[in-house]
Amino acid sequence: MPYSTSSGASSPGRFSSGSESGDIDTPFTERSILFDDHDIDVAVQQSVNDQHILVVGGCGFIGSHTVWELAKAGYNVVIIDNLSNAFSSVFDRLETMVTHHYETVKPGCRQPSLKLYEADFRDTETLTKILESYETPLGFRQHPNDEQRSTISGVIHFAAYKAVGESIKQPLKYYANNVGGLIDFCDLLSDFGIRNFVFSSSATVYGTVADIGVPLREEYCSQETTVFIDEDDQKKVVQAGCSGLTNPYGRTKWMCEAILNDLAHADPSWTITALRYFNPIGCDESGLLGEDPRTAATNLMPVVLRVLTGEAPALNIYGDDYDTPDGTAVRDYIHVTDLARGHLAALKSRADKGFRVYNLGSGRGHSVLDLVAAMEQVSQRKIPTQLVGRREGDVGMCVAKAGRAQEELGWRTEKTLETCCRDVWRFLEHVVAEDSRAKI
Ligand code: UD1
């Protein structure tokens, strides 16, 4: 039964805001003489329906889309973000979108709470205070074990550095944040009895295995020796390890998977899901959320958008001599909304414990020229291009074998490359309109 919740958390981080509303009805309207009003408020607050999902890095591109999907699905969301590569205005927009959604699309439904703490997930002292504020009071735990110790029932961890070039120049920064940060964070979560964890991994872990030219199965990059029957009906044995990782960023993702696998082995009370993202593009269909980092991304779609807005004169095409239909490199582009929903599927559908990896990709490949053509079609504008040499560390083809996520999580992509382009174009028009309004 829905009733209103109040996250009631203190604000150890610098910035904190909340939005919550909804109807208050039974069972707590019938007040018990055994408890005073405060106890009852706490009981309401800490009831089963007051579970939260903690999203670390929830103001970034994928994080914000995931928060939006979580909120639409009714989850209370707590965001921790140091805003190093995102803006707090994203959170304001999310609040507005969620309120509007519950007023217009779901009137009468309980609006979940959203909360942002501006904090670094490596700041253990601040994190401890935040996690303490989500603890279930002792008297309200049904079991003496610590499974119900926290009202945070799941964590999605996005807060990692991801620029390949920067990782080559500043490897220690990447190992400290992505790997060291993860270790301390998991340690802290465990102290609070929070052991349901979704990790942002990447197709980059396949390294040069991607170049075999067939869709990539999760088994091709394994954290332990894996035996399976491949597409050609042959029994294959893959030893634990990775092959041909070309940069520190990629190595951090692989190391994190290995660490999480070891953790789940050592402590079977953990449920850890590593999601290997292929190439996320697109944005929410409203055009209100998009990719808006502080540091300009060098991935294909952001560069295409900079060319469309005149910020860059032309798109450099990195190589046309790959073994692909048109010679340009092929990737599995996945709409960020589909990707975000993959996280919800991971939270909802993992009934088992332990460590498990899933590809989040469509299983379809598109070349650089396909993406340019689709974007030209949608925008009705010419995108100037110039052919340059291959980019160091690039593979010719990287496409997911997508079956495992469908079979085990009930998730698959729904949106096409054209939809990605249409939604991104809408976002661009929205941003341009906002910019010109701001200048008036
Ligand atoms: C890149 C990262 C990868 C990371 C992923 C998600 C590299 C080598 N790899 O993947 O580790 O997990 O982003 O952030 O950076 N392209 C152009 N011109 C451009 C930009 C890209 O032709 O200006 C081409 C690339 O050569 C590639 C394709 O477009 O073939 C996609 O590139 P990109 O969006 O950077 O993604 P990945 O290289 O697949």
From TrEMBL:
Name of the encoding gene: galE_0
CDD domains: UDP_G4E_1_SDR_e
Compositional bias (Low complexity): 1-21
Annotated protein name in UniProt: UDP-glucose 4-epimerase
UniProt-annotated stretches for the region Disordered: 1-24
Species of origin: Lachnellula suecica
Keywords on record: Isomerase, NAD
GO-annotated molecular function: UDP-glucose 4-epimerase activity
Superkingdom of the organism of origin: Eukaryota
